[in-house]
Design brief:
202 residues; alpha+beta; three-stranded antiparallel sheet; 7 helices
Length: 202
């Protein structure tokens, strides 16, 4: 009996050490050496201060900034700890809304967002990503169409020519990974940082 148990125990310990300790440490070391920026969380710094990550969106609400996709992430209600409330881009609670196509709550939210955006730019179709949340609720980017849709508002708020702001969007538009994976997108945080720099020079 012991002869049967001993190999099983030894194999369990060996595989635990290899797959649970040595392999993760090796992959972490390799990632840190080959992709140090990504391994550290793709953090974005400004004047030596970490202001965010290229992988996690932020809740920009000012008219002077480009806005990201809506976020359905939740957090504790400050007035009642037993309840949750909407906390956009809450990185500790990545989630979608889980609301289905027949949900009145979803329909009302999308309609409200659509109407507000249509009033902002009535001559341009509203890009779908500006009224729908992503599955994670943390999407850091918008489609190029979503960014260009916001150009008139941002240009007016910043007192900049629309063409200049559109060029900034074009400069920050990233194509498909390897030419065929994913969709073209614009990182909203990086675009807004470039926008601040452009305004500071004006």
């Amino acid at each position: 009996m012991l002869k049967l148990i001993r190999p099983a125990v030894v194999l369990l310990i060996a595989l635990t050490v290899i797959t649970g300790l040595l392999y993760p440490l090796a992959m972490t070391a390799i990632a840190g050496a080959v992709f140090p920026y990504q391994a550290q969380g793709s953090l974005i710094t400004q004047s030596g201060t970490i202001i965010g990550s290229a992988l996690i969106g932020q809740d920009f609400t000012s008219e002077k900034y480009f806005h990201g996709r809506p976020s359905a992430t939740l957090g504790p209600d400050p007035t009642d700890a037993t309840k949750s409330t909407l906390v956009p881009y809450n990185a500790v609670n990545s989630m979608g809304s889980n609301l289905g196509p027949t949900s009145k709550t979803l329909s009302d939210r999308v309609t409200t967002s659509y109407n507000a955006l249509k009033a902002e730019n009535p001559n341009t179709p509203v890009p779908v990503d500006l009224v729908t949340t992503s599955a994670s609720g943390l999407d850091p980017g918008v489609s190029p169409e979503g960014a260009l849709f916001q150009v008139p508002r941002v240009a007016k708020a910043r007192n900049l020519p629309e063409q200049q702001v559109s060029q900034l969007v074009a400069q920050h538009t990233e194509g498909r990974f390897l030419g065929f994976i994913g969709e073209p997108h614009v990182n909203v945080l990086q675009l807004n940082l470039a926008l601040d720099q452009l305004t500071a020079k004006s």
